[in-house]
Specification:
The protein is built from 3 helices and 6 strands. By secondary structure, the chain is of the alpha+beta class. The termini are far apart. It has one domain (about 15-120): SH3 type barrels (Roll). A 6-stranded antiparallel β-sheet has the order 4-5-3-2-1-6.
């Protein structure tokens, strides 16, 4: 056995993270979707995540509706906001669910791939 920690999260996990609000001294927890963990988490203790927000907010072109709220651990209609990505410390995240639907996973992957394609030199069909 090595001293390498075992990653605790996987892509498609829905986790909650502390989120500071400028006008409030206390932290609130917000849901996010894990899009990269594995080696990133094991090596650096980091996760790449996409924001999850209320479906009642104004929609953005790359939003993906979450239809299985129970499996995702979400209390209200929500969307993955693929345009808002972040790097977070894995130690701050707590798993609350998982994005199960293959069509939703495919839409998230397609929207994120289209956004990063110019940086990777890959072409997308969008």
């Amino acid at each position: 056995m090595t001293g390498t920690p075992t990653p605790g999260f996987e892509p498609w996990d829905v986790v909650k993270i502390p989120f500071p609000y400028h006008a409030q001294p206390a932290l609130e927890y917000r849901p996010v979707l894990v899009i990269a963990a594995g080696r990133l988490e094991a090596t650096h203790g980091l996760l790449w995540v996409a924001m999850i927000t209320s479906a009642t907010n104004a929609s953005w072109p790359s939003d993906v509706p979450i239809t299985d709220l129970r499996s995702a651990g979400l209390p209200a209609p929500s969307v993955v906001r693929c345009a808002k990505l972040a790097t977070i410390a894995a130690g701050e995240a707590q798993k609350i669910g998982v994005l199960l639907r293959p069509a939703e996973r495919a839409a998230v992957a397609r929207n994120i791939a289209a956004a990063v394609a110019p940086a990777t030199g890959r072409q997308t069909n969008d």
